[in-house]
Amino acid sequence: MRRTVVAALAVAALSAPVAAQAAEKSYVRDPLSSKLAQKPKKLNFRDVDLTGLRWIHWGQSRAIARGNASVLICEPSCAEGHRERGKVRVVVRTRKLEGDRRVYQCIEGRITGVPKAYARISWMC
């Protein structure tokens, strides 16, 4: 009986740090404003705006979102360009501790419905 109790306490003590780590909140930094957010509904880049983001696997090593994209097409120049809309799939990964917060460092995405030259997003990867 005593061995069972000792074994149960040892398992509980060893699993506590893992459970605490999984319970920590994860954040992602908006590339344009540098603000941290959990499961952001939008992310803004210089020439791309992502909206309506819906996340799965948030807090795990990789989180995935799907949503809408508005891309500035800089042809013939950005000043004379236009915006095109498409659908986006975003993956955030590589969490690092910043103070007491776990922050996803890398943002990658693919946009459909826009010219191929504008179809990929990569930030801090």
Automatic annotation (TrEMBL):
Residues 1-22 form the signal peptide. Keywords: Signal. This is Secreted protein.
